[in-house]
Amino acid sequence: MANATPNSQSSHALLFIPDISGFTRFVNDTEINHARHIIEELLNLIIESNQLNLEVSEVEGDAILFCRMGPPPSAKELLDQVKRMFTAFHFHLQKYDTHRICNCTACKSANTLTLKFVIHYGEVAINRVMQHDKLFGIDVITVHRLLKNDIDNHEYALFTNNLTGAMTDWNESASNGWGDVVSTSQIYDSGRVDYSYLTLEKLYHEVPELQPDDFRLKGHTASVLKTEAIIEAPLEMVFDVVSDVMWRPKWIAGSTPETTDVNTYVPQAGQTHRCIKNGAVLVAHDYEVEKDAIHFTETDQVKSYCCVYTLTRLENGKSHLKNEFFMPKSFIKEFMFSIMLKKKYQGMCELSWSNLNAYCKDLVSKHQTHPYKVILDEAQSQLTAN
């Protein structure tokens, strides 16, 4: 193989795979796109929950292969790591219920995702191809094979006998875990593998309850700027474009080349972004979806101002857009805004609405849709699925 170094000498290593499952086959590109972002968010969350200095060897679809060379950690440390990842995973899943605005199959079923762990200890070697290290060896094959097993449960932590035999505190720590330890074996084409596993249902009691967020400005507010425009496109299309924060630099005047500070790519309450040069990080919230109108608010993270969007359906496939700026009531701040910033912001808004209209109007003329769709209601979801 070109540019490959000779195989390195085998070393013992911990092989640790968290694996997400639960998404069924999707029926259209919208759901696949949203599912991909949801899985990416959850995989990043799992990586951020790593407290054992595990190294990411590979990201494989909806699973991560972690590796740590040398002797294994203690059983207590491993169980604590499983607990940390599991509780962070299920805490985050609550947001797909409480913060969701999209009703596609992927977004609606995100809260049914499950997480399992397969953990093994064995010999691995590393092959370097270009700038990439690749683990290989029979034990790497074994840990992947173990993802397919006869365990009649969706959420568990599996520990091979190779691993438990190398930990002096396994019997003590496992017996103080979250359920009975079940010992069994599996026959694969590479041979028999003995292992033990613990189911994880009892860990649900360790998942913190998600507290409601309040992103709104506190106290009395004052309206300092209001702009309006007619967008020559249907309400749903306009919302698809406006809510797609990654697309904001394409039409917002004075924007940065790329959107930054994004905490989720799926539009939802609590989504953050920054797209204005030297501007604030904004938080989207308080979505209200009606048959012929959509309202939502974006507030800067320090709560110094907010802008309220109202999109209203008009006849002939057009939409009315209203954007109103508010700030905490203060005579001095209101006066300073009116003489120093109002004219500038009004010009930026008017140019932005013109750009937005041009883009949406072009989509309509070409019988196209914006690539990132949000399914707002059940009827629309069924229509999309068909």
Structural notes for this entry:
With 386 residues, the protein is an alpha+beta fold. The chain folds into 2 domains: 196 residues, Alpha-Beta Plaits (2-Layer Sandwich); 165 residues, 2-Layer Sandwich (Alpha-D-Glucose-1,6-Bisphosphate, Chain A, domain 4). Strands 1, 2, 3, 4, 5, 6, 7 and 8 form an 8-stranded mixed β-sheet that branches. A hairpin with a 5-residue loop joins strand 11 and strand 12. The two termini are 47 Å apart. 33% of the residues are buried. The N terminus and C terminus are likely disordered.
Concise description?
This protein is of the alpha+beta class. It is built from 11 helices and 15 strands. Strands 1, 2, 3, 4, 5, 6, 7 and 8 form an 8-stranded mixed β-sheet that branches.
